[in-house]
Amino acid sequence: VNFGDAVVSPEEKTRRVGQVFSSVARRYDVMNDLMSGGMHRLWKDRFVNRVKPRTGEHVLDMAGGTGDIAFRMAKRGAQVTVSDINADMLAVGMERARERGLEGLSWKQENAESLSFGDAQFDAYTIAFGIRNVTDIPAALRQAHRVLRHGGRFFCLEFSTSDWPGFAEIYELYADKMIPRIGKAVARDEDSYRYLVESIRRFPKPEAFKRMIGEAGFAQTGYETIFGGLVCIHSGWKI
Ligand code: SAM
Predict the structure, then answer these.
(1) Which residue among 133, 196, 203 is best mutated to probe the pocket of ligand 1, counting the most ligand atoms within 8 A of its Cβ?
(2) Is 7 exposed, middle or buried (0-12, 13-18, 19+ CB in 10 A)?
(3) What's the rounded Cα separation, in Å, for the pair 95 and 110?
(4) Which domains does the chain have, with CATH numbers?
(5) What is the pTM of this model?
(6) ipTM, 2 decimals?
(7) Which residues of 36-60 are buried (b: 16+ CB within 10 A; e: fewer)?
(8) Alpha carbon 86 to chain centroid distance?
(9) 73 CB less than 6 Å from ligand 1?
(10) How far is the CA of 56 from the centre of ligand 1 (A)?
(11) Is 112 within any annotated ligand binding site?
(12) pLDDT per residue over 188-227, tens digit each?
């Protein structure tokens, strides 16, 4: 499998992704604001508006990291299980939740590819900027399908490639030249941010990813692009 430009074993990829997020965990939130000019907040708002979590619903926020999506859903009254493979990211998230006095959250370290939850436990499954870091994406999608109840909904927020004229070129420049530099200056970690850029480039295009979601068993799959396609919200239903 690919890790950035390198070809590595699946175990090695999972290990290196772990290193990336352990390395950036403490600076993760400030880096998101810096690199997206604060726009990731709007994309996340838009995403949660699509999910429409209702009071009392149980949502699994997979690859939930430091809690940005989970917090938005908990504020709407959902019971959210925040899961992530990385204990350092979860630790930052738990601290933030405590500071904000948020309720309705539980935290669990899990690999998206092999969840320990029983079948049909959740009303909705969300994964934001997480799936492209997963080594075996089809396995993660099958697990998402398994843990959702019938009538449950799947939502994924992920980067894509924009089709606005001229945007792709500017974005490529920004991603190649600027993001690793910001990573170096602020998080003292150029390589991690180089990996993040490369992982966006390698992620399947919306039509291909939609097909993968269907292959995992989801029905009525579809997607909506935001910001000219730079960001994409995929959804599907378990029927
Ligand atoms: N969802 C959060 C957000 O939108 O701010 C965090 C996104 S962060 C870019 C990606 C997260 O995916 C990291 O916290 C990382 O640890 C997690 N991750 C990577 N591989 C994973 C896996 N196999 N299972 C669960 N989480 C994983």
Answers:
(1) 133
(2) exposed
(3) 19
(4) 2-237 (3.40.50.150)
(5) 0.95
(6) 0.99
(7) eeeebeebbeebbeebebeeebbbb
(8) 13
(9) no
(10) 25
(11) yes
(12) 888 888 888 888 888 999 999 999 999 999 999 999 999 8
